[in-house]
Amino acid sequence: MSRRMSSMVAVVIAAGLFAALLCLFTAPALAQSTPNTPAAPEAPGSIAGVVTDAGGTPLADIQVELYRSYPGASFPERTLTTDAAGAYRAGVLGTGAYRVLFWDPAGVYGQSYYSDAFTLESAASIAVVGNDITGIDGVLHRAGAITGVYSQAVDLLPTSVEIAALVASDTGWQSAKSTYVLTTGGYSLTGLAPGVYRVCATHPYLYPAGGEPLPAPSVCYDNVISSIDNAQPVTVSAGVTTTNINLTAGVEGDGAMIGGSVRTLAGDALENVEVTLIRRTAEQDDAYLQTINTDAAGIYTFRRVRPGVYFVKFDDRSGPYLPTYYGSAQDIDAATPIVVDRFEARLDIDAALEMGAALRGSLRILGTEKPAWASPYSVRVDIGSGGTNEQLWRYGIYDPATGMYSIGGLRPGRYVIEVTAYLGSNRFYGYYGGETFETATVLSVTTGDILTGLDINLGEGMFDGAITGQVTSGGVALPGIKVSLFPSSSNQPELVHVFTDADGRYAFNGLQQNGYRVGFSDPAQMYATTYYSNSIHLGGAQDIYIGTDEPRSGIDARLEPGGFIRGNVRLDQDTPAAGYTVRVWCKAPQDEQNSQMAQSATTDAQGNYQVAALPAGVYRVCVSSSPLYAGWRSGCYGGPLLVYDYHRAQDVPVRAGEETAGINIYLAQKLPNRSFLPMVAQSPGNY
């Protein structure tokens, strides 16, 4: 619904009203005080009252909801229930403005806001300033209901539709009660206080021509799309269900029509000209509501148009005819406005288009593939910045089925063609006749020109980047080493990997312009995992930047024998920790106070783990029950029990080709008998 109809957004509380309420509620206390002696506040404040039916009988078990009001909005504060005497009291209320709702969970009585208001927005504001407010009473009448069926006359996206009972207020139409249905079906608005309502449905994806910006109602009872003001009143009586209040979205209803014909100056019909309906209001800039195309006879019609002021634009985007607005204007400010009322049919909004020029050609990726999507456009290079955007830039159309593009409606002048295209996830950008704007071909056109064969081939050199190198150890080539390619950003997933050949060589070809990182690991785990250049973790790897048509060779690695860390993880009662994640951290060379995770492993059924292929160095070892983060059952080797903090863990030295065993971790409330923890040295070097 529109902001005028929102059931939760409150009316802005005027400063004068708020001040008046403050005076109203504080004046009695001041009157009882002695001269020069201020009254003591009764803070914190409270709100109390009694809920009865229309005959004065107290009502028990009525829900009382308090809302805290701020300028422009209200938010739920507290919910209470009336006692056997129909009484309620909300204590310990901070200073502020409040609004109160009374409603019956049993549905016997209709809801009401204090005092006797239909909506939250129109409810009375109660100022609490450290005093006890009484007499905030509610009188409920027996509830009525509205039922009906919601349907659709047009195909709409499947989604929930809001149906609301609306009442008028000083600030516009507001929702007293609403419900939702899934696309189509019966609806029921229950718990309504007796009164007169308007019933409207809002489909969030229905854009009828002339429709206001969402969330305006799509249709109101009975077949009204023009305005809630024109909807048929629906009377709700106490204890009575009003039926057959049916709503159908997509009907023409009491809307208007705007249509006409589009022809050449010679009177020939123009097919497939884009016609756009534009609405202008005092509250908003021009809203481009809907675009349709003329048929074979040059005819177009906008239906379901709401009353208002409109402009119509005619644009032959694929052909040579010049764009214009109704009234033969080149821009909207000079166009002739079109005013329509309910049921009005303005089918005389015709246009005669002048001849211009058009540019046409094909788009291909590396000479063969047609882009899945493309946006071709021309840039006029013979006029200065004083020209309008429509004179400087003209966007054309592209047909992915044929790979052909057309830029129409050009005025005589000199142009450069640019295009942006996509094929899968790859973006391509280029020009006709050159690789850059400065080297692109400048095309001169005059009235009546239709230049064809302006073919553009995209992607040249885009996939010619390469990264190559060799992996050795002690001067001997290493075959079968896994070489992984990563994006240049730290800790991003692997893009792809290859294996070195018999000479220890590898190659990543077909690379696009970007930054990359490269990692080297031995599937047999004999050699230490490393990252280019000579980093033991991905975060410290060197970025390799690839430009267009730029190979990068010599991205080599010299691997050293890897070391091992072995250990066991135990839980309470010396139970093995199976399936836990072990993480090995190493110092970050650029920041001695922080670390980078080098590798990880998972414990087996006996709680054993092994982390292999580690470069020689000093590490910290931590373990967690979670594979993603430090869970509730976690800790580190040599650190405090059940504390996941590698800064407080013990150093674990690893030597090339050697095993460091016995790195056991206890995730228990206390250590088992005959267990020992490693001694932790207290020195500034610890991290």
Q: Regarding CATH, which class of the largest domain?
A: Mainly Beta
Major sheet: 5 strands, antiparallel
Helix content: under 10%
Low-confidence spans:
1-40, 589-593, 679-687
Beta strands, count: 56
Bin the strand percentage.
Answer: 35-45%
The helix tally amounts to 2
Structure class: mainly beta
Return the domain count. 6
CATH architectural category of the largest domain: Sandwich
Q: What is the terminal separation in angstroms?
A: 58 Å
Quick one: CATH superfamily of the largest domain?
Carboxypeptidase-like, regulatory domain
What does this structure look like?
The chain is mainly β and 687 residues long. The chain has 6 domains: 15-140, Sandwich (Immunoglobulin-like); 144-249, Carboxypeptidase-like, regulatory domain (Immunoglobulin-like, Sandwich); 256-353, Immunoglobulin-like, CATH 2.60.40.10; 357-458, Immunoglobulin-like, CATH 2.60.40; 465-558, Immunoglobulin-like (Sandwich); 563-666, Sandwich (Immunoglobulin-like), CATH 2.60.40. It contains 2 helices and 56 strands. The strands form 12 sheets. Strands 2, 3, 5, 6 and 7 form a 5-stranded antiparallel β-sheet that branches. A hairpin with a 2-residue loop joins β2 and β3. The radius of gyration is 37 Å and the shape is flat. It starts with 14 loop residues before the first helix and ends in a 21-residue tail after the last strand. Residues 1-40, 589-593 and 679-687 have low confidence and may be disordered.
